[in-house]
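Much of our argument rests on the idea that a fold can be written as discrete symbols. This step matters because it turns folding into a mapping between discrete strings. The record that follows shows the chain in one-letter code together with its fold in token form.
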Amino acid sequence: MKKKASHLTALLLTLGAVLCFAAGAAAADTLQAITAYLDPGITIIFDGEAKTLTDAKGARVYPITYNGSTYLPVRAVADLAGLEVNWDQATKTVHLGKMSTDVDLIDTLNNYYRDSGVDNWGAQVKTGEKDPMEISGINCSHWIDLYLGTWMEQTPTAKISFNLEGKYDTLAFQYYTTKDVILKVFGDNDSVLFEQEIHGGRVAQTVTVPLLKTTQLSFYAEQISKDTRNSHTYIFDAKLS
């Protein structure tokens, strides 16, 4: 097992260089002309056996020598290592292993309802809209902030809602709060998918919630006492699958 792991590590290190070459060749704005050489004389040994490298159609391909380094075709090496390989034309990205089908809720979807008493709070912040912020020691580029203010006579609450169109089975996210609050996740008809009293200043926690094909998804925070007013409850790293 150690032997295979060491071979796989070596192959992936080689792949790192090849990925840059492959992505650059597909993107006109990063394309650079080079002089390289196909070298059929190089033998590839994997787990003690000589291997023939082939492309997706089964045609034989050869290593390339450039500036004293040897480059191997991504797909051929991935096949040797037993890795799935896919090319994403839209993002010019080579995917090794299984492609993630998760959807980033905060960066991908727009909320259609938000209520926290102040328009600037209860906010959905997407990547690039604000500077990254550290939440529970984690550098975050996008998040939801459920803010509970100090000015309300009644129990402050904050809520933000999204339309999932019944497309997803689960939601995984991290949460963190500055003060003790009750955090809830609602589905259709305000059915409670998750409810937890969470404590201020504690390390962020991760939770996975079954969505049961819900259409409406809402995050909801409620103060526990007047001492917990003026608090921020953050939702981040929220992935739908």
Observations:
- Confidence is low (pLDDT under 50) at residues 1-27.
